[in-house]
Amino acid sequence: MIIQMNLQHDSYDIIVERGILARAGEHLNLNRRVLVVTDTGVPAVYAKTLAQQCKESVICTVEMGEVSKSLAVFGQLLETMLNHDFSRKDCVVAVGGGVVGDLAGFAASAYMRGIDFYNIPTTLLSQIDSSIGGKTAINFGGVKNIFGAFYQPKKVLIDPDLLKTLPPRQIANGLAEAIKMSLTCDTDLFTLFEQQDIEANLEEIIIRSLNIKKSVVEQDEKEAGLRKVLNFGHTIGHGIESSEGMCELYHGECVALGMLPMCSEAIRPRVIAVLKKCNLYRELQYDWDKITQAAFHDKKADGSLVTVILVNQVGSFEIKTMECLDVIELAKACLEG
């Protein structure tokens, strides 16, 4: 299936097809120097399969996890391209999850003021969410995604077969973003989560989620308004994720918890039931001082105010500006109540 992201001069195709990694050369211009960026958590054969289809390739394998979204690793990618005489006609391909995509995309945006970038996401989280939309970033000073650029890929190849090597927890991690999109925009998708076998419907979940994000990005590429809906659950979620001592949780697991306070009491039991079904519900000891500090450094905050997404009914949402401390109190009451 081909899903087209319509962004005028920055339009591109998102191709969802089993086995497409082995045929990437049929869809991507690899007849040039290619920096293949992957990480230690991705089966090495994936990057090698892509590299074998390139005219000339350099594989750069970074450490798995958020630690690689740093200025140091970002600099290493740029230095690698410089040392291998990459020109503006060459390209970068991300073969990995969201960390790899964010890092590689940002490096592509910066090298010689921008060279071609392709994304081949290998996790459910990145296939559903981070691989499209053009947000690239690294972390700095304990603040997540604080340095970055909007830089659209030239094409995205999504191979559901690559998910076969993922452990169940990583599948659940990706499902959190799909649940997020169903709650704000797609009642039928949320019903699927409630009533259907998730594993049997994984490809449909990917495609429906991609179409939701595509529609939002096409209307608001640079997050001037509507695109904020994609941040549902992320203010508290990022606070949990960035707070010291809770970093053993994955991004999707944090977002799942962050969604609950933003849902009305009327639908919250349904949401909790779906999170439990997807192994995303956690009972934790929260350090609210650290979460508050991390949430206040969130780049979406404006002084003491933050824009949040509230869901009162499944399939619809409200964009609301609130005092940061009020958001924290709402989260405390929900998650500790």
From TrEMBL:
Residues 174-300 form the 3-dehydroquinate synthase C-terminal domain. The keyword Kinase does not apply. It catalyses: 7-phospho-2-dehydro-3-deoxy-D-arabino-heptonate = 3-dehydroquinate + phosphate. GO terms for molecular function: 3-dehydroquinate synthase activity; metal ion binding; nucleotide binding. Pfam families: DHQ_synthase (PF01761), DHQS_C (PF24621). Residues 60-172 form the 3-dehydroquinate synthase N-terminal domain. It is found in: Cytoplasm. The keyword Nucleotide-binding applies. Pathway: Metabolic intermediate biosynthesis; chorismate biosynthesis; chorismate from D-erythrose 4-phosphate and phosphoenolpyruvate: step 2/7. One of its GO terms (cellular component) is cytoplasm. SUPFAM superfamilies: Dehydroquinate synthase-like (SSF56796). Transmembrane segments: none annotated. Belongs to the sugar phosphate cyclases superfamily. Dehydroquinate synthase family. This is 3-dehydroquinate synthase. The lineage of its organism: Bacteria, Bacillati, Bacillota, Clostridia, Eubacteriales. The gene is aroB.
